[in-house]
Amino acid sequence: MAFKDIAEAKQSCKLYVMAKKVELVVVKSDKTILRYKCGAECCPFLLLISENLTTPGVSVKTRVDHIECGTTYDNSLVDYSTIALYFKEKLQSDPK
User: Fold this and answer.
1) Boundaries of each Transposase MuDR plant domain copy (predicted)?
2) Looking at the whole model, is its pTM more than 0.85?
């Protein structure tokens, strides 16, 4: 998966957190790299997004999937703009 920049990748990760109801913790975040891990200690989830060397933008370099680590509704990554964007897309696709 590729993104325009780190900001777009962060927004996609926030939407992922809301859709999957999981907790992600930022391990490292700067202008060139973004790394997340799962908030549950027993979960091996890992996501590494960094710059492409051949093309402009950033892409997912490493991804280890979630195991059954449970549902969480409390996540510090999600802010009001992410919630608004999440529901805006859902309401536009199905207004009823």
Assistant:
1) 2-53
2) no
